[in-house]
């Protein structure tokens, strides 16, 4: 049931996650979008199940209704909703205790009529990863805590980016790593791989640099997901930090180390 999870969303933990639910903008999630179109039409809601740490919790999935004539190109906006006193909300507050304490302290320091959205500092952020399962009414929650990030960051200090990317493609883990470290690494690499695989589907396995789909020539999907800012340095596995490229350009990028201009969305090589 949980061996072939497809990426749905990586959500930064905020007050909403800890109290009432998650809004999911349907953008790059090809598999999720296809499932939703069949399972939950726009403007409707259904009961769903959330699996967290081996336990199952009940929640509600809402496909928000909006004026399609006014917003003809807007994609579906899904919401996973649960009550602040529900078991899933209480469990999330327990797991993300560091974020909960920080946000609560910030909110309590302000008058009730002045409370606003509290942004957790970058170095303290925690994340909720959401995946599909084999059942359209069941989703998998995985939590990435401050402790997870700390362990992975320490583990990545001496790791080579190319070796790390290869470990994602081939699902390898250091055989000498302790069980605790393996659990953190597998969790992070699973998210990396899931986002990368979703982007490959989005771009139809075409290289974003040359536009070629080598897969059609050889009958196998061989494009690579490359981190623009090296993951071993940035720990940034967001979709906007990954580019889908053919094996040739993947090797060129690692050899030439080009600079990525995010404003113009181009790579250029600095000749010395």
What can you tell me about this protein's structure?
With 272 residues, the protein is of the alpha+beta class. The chain folds into 2 domains: 1-144, Beta Barrel (At1g16640 B3 domain), CATH 2.40.330; 161-272, no CATH class. It contains 10 helices and 11 strands. The strands form 3 sheets. The protein has a 7-stranded mixed beta sheet with strand order 1-6-7-3-4-5-2, with helices on both faces. A two-stranded antiparallel ribbon has the order 8-9. It has a two-stranded antiparallel sheet with strand order 10-11. Strand 3 (45-52) and strand 4 (55-63) form a beta hairpin. Helix 3 crosses helix 4 (97-108) and helix 5 (146-156) packs across helix 7. It is globular, with a radius of gyration of 20 Å. It starts with 6 loop residues before the first strand and ends with a strand.
Strand order of the largest sheet: 1-6-7-3-4-5-2
Strand content: 15-25%
Figure out the total of helices: 10
* Main sheet attributes: strand count, strand direction, barrel closure: 7 strands, mixed
Remind me, CATH topology of the largest domain?
At1g16640 B3 domain
> Whole-number average pLDDT?
84
Topology order in helix (H) and strand (E) letters: EHEHEEEHHEEHHHHEHEHEE
Helical amount: 25-40%
The CATH architecture of the largest domain: Beta Barrel
Q: What multimeric state do the chains show? A: single chain
CATH top level label of the largest domain: Mainly Beta
InterPro entries: HNH_nuc
Organism: Herbinix hemicellulosilytica
Protein name: HNH nuclease domain-containing protein
Domain HNH nuclease: 195-251
């Amino acid at each position: 049931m949980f061996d072939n999870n497809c990426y749905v969303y990586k959500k930064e933990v905020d007050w909403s996650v800890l109290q009432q639910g998650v809004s999911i903008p349907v953008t790059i999630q090809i598999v999720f979008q296809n499932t939703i179109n069949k399972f939950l039409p726009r403007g409707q809601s259904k009961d769903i199940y959330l699996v967290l740490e081996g336990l199952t919790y009940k929640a509600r999935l809402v496909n928000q209704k909006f004026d399609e004539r006014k917003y003809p190109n807007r994609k579906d906006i899904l919401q996973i909703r649960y009550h602040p006193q529900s078991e899933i909300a209480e469990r999330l507050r327990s797991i993300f205790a560091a974020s909960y304490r920080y946000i609560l302290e910030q909110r309590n320091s302000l008058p009730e009529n002045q409370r606003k959205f509290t942004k957790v500092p970058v170095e303290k952020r925690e994340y909720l990863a959401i995946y599909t399962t084999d059942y359209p009414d069941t989703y998998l929650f995985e939590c990435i805590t401050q402790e997870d990030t700390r362990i992975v960051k320490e583990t990545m200090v001496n790791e080579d980016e190319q070796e790390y990317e290869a470990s994602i493609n081939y699902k390898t883990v250091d055989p000498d790593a302790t069980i605790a470290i393996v659990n953190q690494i597998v969790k992070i690499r699973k998210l990396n791989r899931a986002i990368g695989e979703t982007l490959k589907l989005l771009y139809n396995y075409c290289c974003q640099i040359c536009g070629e789909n080598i897969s059609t020539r050889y009958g196998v999907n061989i494009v690579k997901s490359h981190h623009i800012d090296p993951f071993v340095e940035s720990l940034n596995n967001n979709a906007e930090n990954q580019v889908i490229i053919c094996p040739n350009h993947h090797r060129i990028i690692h050899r030439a180390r080009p600079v990525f201009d995010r404003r113009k969305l181009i790579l250029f090589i600095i000749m010395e």
